[in-house]
Amino acid sequence: MTDESRTNIGSTNIGTPTPEELREQIEHTRDELGQTVEALAAKADVKAQVKGQAAEKAAVVSEQIRAKAEQAAQLVRDKTPAPVLDKAAQATAQVREGAARAGRLAADKAPEPLLDTGRQAAGMARANRTPLLAAGAALVVFLLVRRSRRRR
Questions:
Q1: Is the pTM of this model over 0.70?
Q2: Disordered: where is this region (predicted)?
Q3: Would you put residue 10 in left (φ > 0), alpha (ψ -120 to 50) or beta?
Q4: What three-state secondary structure class fits 47?
Q5: Among 54, 69, 83, which residue's Cα sits nearest to residue 133?
């Protein structure tokens, strides 16, 4: 498209465009320029692109870790003999009972800022329950196997 054809867009006469036609051309050019600037700004915002890609990658990796932890926990449950699982369940119950007692005692004697921190930690543990349970089960199995090997 030549400069001459640009200035004559929508013009009925081949000569000089009217002031109204010039205004329309200017408005049209402004719109195109604005769209072009927005598109270039979006492409140039590398920081936002990297941040978005990092968030996506973190979500994918987090889901993969959760899936692997669940697989590991299931594998431990499948490979562990029933008596060991029973002992682990008993130990878990005892630990929970002791933790509840300790929690009540700590709540009675601890200052409020410390209690707030404890509540936050408990909330994070609840949010990540599966990996924590898998790690705890693996630790119990490891300790029980190690203990049984020492007795031999």
A1: no
A2: 1-20
A3: left
A4: helix
A5: 69
